[in-house]
Design goal:
- Pathway: Purine metabolism; IMP biosynthesis via de novo pathway; N(1)-(5-phospho-D-ribosyl)glycinamide from 5-phospho-alpha-D-ribose 1-diphosphate: step 2/2.
- It catalyses: 5-phospho-beta-D-ribosylamine + glycine + ATP = N(1)-(5-phospho-beta-D-ribosyl)glycinamide + ADP + phosphate + H(+).
- With 419 residues, the chain is of the alpha+beta class.
- The protein folds into 4 domains: 92 residues, Rossmann fold; 68 residues, 2-Layer Sandwich (Dna Ligase, domain 1), CATH 3.30.1490; 122 residues, 2-Layer Sandwich (D-amino Acid Aminotransferase, Chain A, domain 1), CATH 3.30.470.20; 94 residues, Phosphoribosylglycinamide synthetase, C-terminal domain (Glycinamide Ribonucleotide Synthetase, Chain A, domain 4), CATH 3.90.600.
- Helices cover 30% and strands 27% of the residues.
- The chain is built from 14 helices and 23 strands.
- The strands form 6 sheets. Strands 12, 15, 18, 19, 22 and 23 form a 6-stranded antiparallel β-sheet that branches. Strands 3-2-1-4-5 form a 5-stranded parallel β-sheet. Strands 6-9-7-8 form a 4-stranded antiparallel β-sheet, sandwiched between helices.
- α7 runs antiparallel to α8.
- The longest helix is centred in the middle third of the chain and has 21 residues.
C-alpha cells in the first residue's frame, strides 16, 4: 500500500517511520515533511492546509491511506474534504475535532456525560474571569479555548500570574481568536500520563501509556513547552488505574461523541492525571501527542499499515506491544520556547545512530551536507532497553558524547519514575 502522512514535525517522522517499517507498506510520502525525514519517506512540497493540492496528490499517486498528523488541518476539516472526494483518510471530522479545537466544547461534553475532569468556568470577559480567579485563589489553570500550538495553557501558582495570563489571552489576544475565550479551571494534583487510543466506528484500540515533560528545564522548571522528552511505560501508574481510565473516560467519551452526532474516528489523546479521587481529564487532543508518539509507536510490534487497513475495513485485528521501555530526549534550539536561534549546525547524527539510538527529526534543514536547526524542537534522540533506567543511560551517554552548540536539552527526562 501507499501512505501519505500530513505534517512536518517529530510526530509525523515517527508515524512515517512506523509505516515504512511495516511489511504491508510499499511507499511512504510526507507533506511537507522536513529534510531529516528523507531516509524514511519521500517529502512532498505541499502545505498541510493546502487541501486541494493534497487531495490532488493523493488521487494522482493512488494513495491508499492519508494519515493526518497535526491538529490545524483536522480542525479546519481536511477529513471532510477528502471524504467528499472518495479518498481514504484517517482522522476526525471537523465536528469531531472540536474535542481539541474548543476546550469549552470538551469541558461541556465531559460535564454533560459525567466524565471526570477539573471544575471550571468559561469566560469571554476579562473582568469576570479575573474576578473568578480572585474568588477561587491559586494555584489555578488558565487555558486558551482554541488551538495554540501547545502553548495556550498557564498553570498559575499565584493569583497575579493568573490575572496576567487572562490579560494576555483575552486582552492582548496573544493567540488571536483562539484566546478570545478562556477556560479557567481548578488545579489538579497528581501524576500525569498520556493515554492515546486509535478509534474508528465505535472500535477502540488503546495504546500503551506514556509520560512527557512539558517544562523547558531540569527539575520540571521554566516555561511550558510542547514537550522536552517522554518515556513509556509509566511504572508509577498501576494497570488498574489504566483500566479505570478506559472504563470511566475513554469509552464514555467515544460513546458521548457518537450520541452528540460527532462520532470520533482518529487518534483520541487523553491527557490524564491520577488524583486522590482517581484519574481525571486535563485535556483531550484529536491526534497523536508530540513527543509521546516518538516513544509509544516504537513499542508497537504489529504491522501498522495492515492494522490501519483492517481497522478501516471493519475487520478485527489484535495490536501487539513490546515490553521494552523507550525513553526519548528532545534537543531544542537555544531560546525555545521563545525566540529561537535557527541555523546552528547539528553534530553528525550517524554518530548517534551507530550507538543504537533512534533519531527523529522535528525541525531540521540540510545545508551543504549538514543538518541545521530550523525550528524550536529540532530532534528527539531515543533508546529502547529492558528498563527505563537502561534506556535513560543509553540516551544520555549518546547525547553527552557530542557538542551541541546552539542547542540544549534536559538532563533528567524520566526522573519522576527513576528517583
Amino acid at each position: 500500500m501507499k501512505v501519505l502522512v500530513i505534517g512536518s514535525g517529530g510526530r509525523e517522522h515517527a508515524i512515517a517511520r512506523q509505516f515504512k517499517n511495516s511489511p504491508s507498506v510499499e511507499e511512504v510520502y510526507v507533506a511537507p515533511g522536513n529534510d531529516g525525514m528523507k531516509a524514511d519517506a519521500e517529502c512532498v512540497a505541499l502545505d498541510v492546509m493546502d487541501f486541494s493540492g493534497l487531495a490532488q496528490f493523493a488521487k494522482e499517486y493512488e494513495i491508499d491511506l492519508t494519515f493526518v498528523g497535526p491538529e490545524q488541518p483536522l480542525a479546519a476539516g481536511i477529513v471532510d474534504f477528502f471524504q467528499l472526494r472518495g479518498l481514504r483518510i484517517f482522522g476526525p471530522t471537523k465536528e469531531a475535532a472540536q474535542i481539541e479545537g474548543s476546550k469549552s466544547y470538551a469541558k461541556a461534553l465531559m460535564k454533560k456525560y459525567g466524565i471526570p475532569t477539573a471544575a471550571y468556568e468559561t469566560f469571554t470577559d476579562a473582568v469576570k474571569a479575573k474576578a473568578y480567579v480572585k474568588k477561587m485563589g491559586a494555584p489555578i489553570v488558565v487555558k486558551a479555548d482554541g488551538l495554540a500550538a501547545g502553548k495556550g495553557v498557564v498553570v498559575a501558582m499565584t493569583v497575579e500570574e493568573a490575572v496576567h495570563a487572562i490579560d494576555e489571552m483575552i486582552g492582548n489576544q496573544r493567540f488571536g481568536e483562539s484566546s478570545s475565550r478562556v477556560v479557567v479551571e481548578e488545579f489538579l494534583e497528581g501524576e500525569e500520563f498520556s493515554y492515546m487510543s486509535i478509534v474508528h466506528d465505535g472500535q477502540i484500540y488503546p495504546m500503551v501509556i506514556a509520560q512527557d515533560h512539558k517544562r523547558a528545564y531540569d527539575g520540571d522548571k521554566g516555561p511550558n513547552t510542547g514537550g522536552m522528552g517522554a518515556y513509556s511505560p509509566v511504572p508509577q501508574i498501576p494497570d488498574e488505574v489504566i483500566a479505570t481510565a478506559y472504563e470511566t473516560i475513554i469509552m464514555p467519551t467515544v460513546e458521548a461523541m457518537a450520541k452528540e452526532g460527532a462520532s470520533f474516528s482518529g487518534i483520541l489523546y487523553a491527557g490524564l492525571i491520577l488524583t486522590k479521587e482517581g484519574p481525571k481529564v486535563i485535556e483531550f487532543n484529536a491526534r497523536f501527542g508530540d513527543p509521546e508518539t516518538q516513544v509509544v509507536l516504537p513499542r508497537m510490534k504489529s504491522d501498522f499499515g495492515a492494522f490501519m487497513t483492517a481497522l478501516l475495513d471493519g475487520k478485527p485485528y489484535e495490536l501487539e506491544w513490546s515490553d521494552e521501555a523507550v525513553l526519548g530526549v528532545v534537543v531544542a534550539a537555544k531560546g525555545y520556547p521563545g525566540d529561537v536561534v535557527k541555523g546552528s549546525i547539528l553534530p553528525d547524527l550517524t554518530g548517534i545512530e551507530s550507538k543504537g539510538l533512534g533519531v527523529i527529526h522535528a525541525g531540521t534543514k540540510e545545508v551543504e551536507g549538514h543538518f541545521t536547526g530550523n525550528g524550536g524542537r529540532v530532534i528527539l534522540v531515543s533508546a529502547s532497553a529492558d528498563t527505563l533506567k537502561e534506556a535513560q543511560v543509553k540516551v544520555y551517554e549518546g547525547l553527552n558524547s557530542f557538542e551541541w552548540k546552539g542547542f540544549f536539552y534536559r538532563n533528567d527526562i524520566g526522573w519522576r519514575t527513576l528517583e
